[in-house]
């Protein structure tokens, strides 16, 4: 046989949904030139065969239009000359479940005169035991790419992993990277960039005891050293996602309470682990805010929206700051009677902030009140018309997800305590979310696909992250048919 086919992957032990670069070589070991066909014009070869060792089942994969293979093919291939190209494994090959597999490649050469077959390469696909999952989805109508951070047990320790999700065509995990070791299980809170900014580098922030920890993860998934700073001996919470600036410095808004008094406290830090004194703002209520959201505008102005617990009414207030040394006093945004249920907010292209406040009337448990609002860049506020929406579940809502489409219309998902998720599309009634996404106890996120339809993402034990439509069916290509 004059043509040798070699496969050399970077890694052979992978998590489900983890990818690796594979290099493939065709070497002419004979004494005569061999005719080879450019892969761009050959839909049949190379062929990759995956055999599951546990069941002896074999799956066959050929090149398809989405394969990211790049190569320059000499034609003919001279004696001693080799042809090389590379691709990411998951663009061509699928492993259906955790287990051990053998991968073999075949390439037809010499216009059908011969077949080159590689030696089997053993791959071990490990279960994804996703713990402490956090979603890094920008609050925008369409996010082309976002991250999921999670922890994976390894021996007696933990590893931090990052899965990259593409929201182009069919939403899917395109890459999973082991970022580095983690000392313990903690609730990670990933940063968000300025309005329409680059979300690819991320700060991860968490609290443990009376220490605030922070860690920078680069675009390439390289985690830097874990830093920490001591905090006062008070009740302490991280209120909202950290904000990452153009210089990659980070700010996080904290709530602190002691002796019947509470305040908003900024903490600011950089990649060198340096922390800086930052502003605080006293609150009129010692109770932790019911909801909060921080945003950063394109001009680097930061805003924080908070809802404080008050009897018989829901009061949305905001503060803003341009430097971490001074926060402006709280200002009213909107006030509405009732009991707080959920809220959401999103920055618009012009740096306006649009939001929705969901409340339940004091005297009617079968409906919710949806109150939209808009704050313009100059700080002026417009309160929209409130809308009554039927919602039969009397139980307390313990989780909520709100996303806005490109027109500013909200998709609202609520999970009453002990029940399944329910979703309301703009102008429609609440409907139960079908499939595993509706009932899973694992974390769930909601985002919109390219044509502004809602998609849910959640983890499946052992297999990784999956994407479904509200009906429970797997997410489809929105441009199909």
Give me the secondary-structure topology:
Layout: E1 3-9, E2 13-15, E3 21-28, E4 47-52, E5 58-62, E6 70-71, E7 82-88, E8 99-109, E9 114-117, E10 121-126, E11 131-136, E12 145-154, E13 157-166, E14 172-182, E15 189-190, E16 202-208, E17 211-217, E18 227-230, E19 235-238, E20 243-244, E21 250-258, E22 261-269, E23 275-276, E24 280-283, E25 291-296, E26 302-310, E27 313-321, E28 331-337, E29 339-347, E30 353-360, E31 367-375, E32 381-383, E33 387-390, E34 397-404, E35 410-416, E36 422-424, E37 430-432, H1 435-439, E38 444-448, E39 454-460, E40 464-468
Parallel strand pairs: 2-10
Antiparallel strand pairs: 1-3, 3-7, 4-5, 4-8, 6-7, 8-9, 8-10, 11-12, 12-13, 13-14, 15-16, 16-17, 17-18, 19-21, 20-21, 21-22, 22-23, 22-24, 25-26, 26-27, 27-28, 29-30, 30-31, 31-32, 31-33, 34-35, 35-36, 36-37, 38-39, 39-40
Explain what the structure shows:
Residues 65-70 have low confidence and may be disordered. It contains one helix and 40 strands. It has 481 residues and is mainly beta. It has a domain at 3-126: Immunoglobulins (Immunoglobulin-like), CATH 2.60.40.
Overall residue-averaged pLDDT value: 87
Q: How big is the Rg?
A: 26 Å
Poorly predicted regions are 65-70
Quote the distance from N terminus to C terminus: 46 Å
The tally of strands reads: 40
Determine the fraction of residues in helical runs and give it as a percent range.
under 10%
**Mass-distribution shape:** elongated
**Which fold name fills CATH's third level, the topology of one domain?**
Immunoglobulin-like
Strand content range: over 45%
The CATH architecture name of one domain reads Sandwich
Kindly report the name of the CATH homologous superfamily of one domain: Immunoglobulins
């Amino acid at each position: 046989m004059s043509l040798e086919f070699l496969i050399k992957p970077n890694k052979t032990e992978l998590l489900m949904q983890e990818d690796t670069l594979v290099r493939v070589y065709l070497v002419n070991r004979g004494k005569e030139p061999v005719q080879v066909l450019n892969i761009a014009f050959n839909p049949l070869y190379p062929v990759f065969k995956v055999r599951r060792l546990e069941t002896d089942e074999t799956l066959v994969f050929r090149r398809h239009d989405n394969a990211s293979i790049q190569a320059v093919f000499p034609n003919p291939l001279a004696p001693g000359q080799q042809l090389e190209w590379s691709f990411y494994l998951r663009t061509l090959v699928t492993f259906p479940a955790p287990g051990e597999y053998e991968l073999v490649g075949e390439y037809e050469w010499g216009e059908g005169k011969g077949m080159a077959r590689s030696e089997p390469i053993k791959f071990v696909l490990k279960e994804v035991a996703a713990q402490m999952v956090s979603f890094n989805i920008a609050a925008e109508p369409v996010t082309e790419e976002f991250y999921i951070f999670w922890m994976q047990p390894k021996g007696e320790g933990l590893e931090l992993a990052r899965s990259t999700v593409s929201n182009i065509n069919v939403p899917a995990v395109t890459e999973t990277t082991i970022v580095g070791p983690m000392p313990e299980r903690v609730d990670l809170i990933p940063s968000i960039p300025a309005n329409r900014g680059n979300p690819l580098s991320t700060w991860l922030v968490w609290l443990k005891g009376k220490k605030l920890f922070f860690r920078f993860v680069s675009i390439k998934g390289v985690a830097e050293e874990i830093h920490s700073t001591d905090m006062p001996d008070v009740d302490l919470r991280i209120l909202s996602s950290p904000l990452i600036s153009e210089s990659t410095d980070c700010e996080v808004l904290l709530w602190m309470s002691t002796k019947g008094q509470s305040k908003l406290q900024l903490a600011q830090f950089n990649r060198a682990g340096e922390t800086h004194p930052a502003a605080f703002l006293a609150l009129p209520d010692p109770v932790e805010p019911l909801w909060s959201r921080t945003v950063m505008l394109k001009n680097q102005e930061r805003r924080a929206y908070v809802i404080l617990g008050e009897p018989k009414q829901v009061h949305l207030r905001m503060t803003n700051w341009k430097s971490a040394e001074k926060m402006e006093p709280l200002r009213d945004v909107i006030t509405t009677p009732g009991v707080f249920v959920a809220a959401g907010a999103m920055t618009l292209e012009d740096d306006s902030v649009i939001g929705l406040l969901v409340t339940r009337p004091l005297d009617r448990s079968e409906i919710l009140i949806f109150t939209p609002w808009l704050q313009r860049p100059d700080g002026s506020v417009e309160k929209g018309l409130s809308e009554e929406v039927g919602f039969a579940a009397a139980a307390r809502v313990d989780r909520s997800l709100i996303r806005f489409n490109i027109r500013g219309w909200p998709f609202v998902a609520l999970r009453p305590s002990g029940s399944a998720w329910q979703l309301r599309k703009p102008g429609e009634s609440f409907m139960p979310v079908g499939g595993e996404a509706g009932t899973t106890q694992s974390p769930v996120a909601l985002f919109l696909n390219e044509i502004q339809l809602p998609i849910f993402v959640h983890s499946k034990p052992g297999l990784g992250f999956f994407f479904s439509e509200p009906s429970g069916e797997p997410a489809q290509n929105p441009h199909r048919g």
